[in-house]
Amino acid sequence: MNDFLLDTDIIINHLKDRSKKGFSLENLFAQGNLFVSTLTAAEVWRGIPQEKRDKTEEALTRIENIPVTTGLARSSGVLSFTYAKRGITITTIDAIIATTALEKNLILVSHDKIYTRIGGLKHYSP
Fold first, then answer.
1. Largest CB tally within 10 Å, which of 8, 57, 87, 125?
2. What domain range includes position 12?
């Protein structure tokens, strides 16, 4: 059984029926537990029009929310700083999401290629 941390793009694509052929959140639910960062939830709500809000609420209530703690904020800042010294820019939100996956031992599901550059991060791009 695997546990997955969903990035914003995966949820938005699901809600707008734009997921790639053969991929669905239901398939991931069958393989393990699904999680989102509170930041991901905020980004999802920002990108959803009024007519999709009921579907959004339904989807997000099925996925466990991981809050951003002071410890996660500290670790993500260190991660971002470390990669910046190597010439790799990671946005604050992406750093927090990556750190959440690393610290909680979750597979990060995203199409964002920045995550492939973070050592030790388990990443799945459907």
1. 8
2. 4-124
124 burial via Cβ count (<10 Å: 0-12, 13-18, 19+) = middle
pLDDT digit string, tens, across residues 54-74: 988 988 999 999 999 999 999
Please state the domain count of the chain. Answer: 1
Q: Are 104 and 1 in contact (CB under 8 A)?
A: no
The phi and psi torsions of 118 (rounded to 5 degrees) equal -100, 115
Q: What is the CATH number of the domain that holds 91?
A: 3.40.50.1010
Beta-strand ranges (E) seen in the chain are 2-6, 32-37, 64-66, 107-109, 123-124
Complete edge-to-edge strand list for the sheet that includes strand 32-37:
64-66, 32-37, 2-6, 107-109, 123-124
Q: What percent of the chain has pLDDT over 90?
A: 73
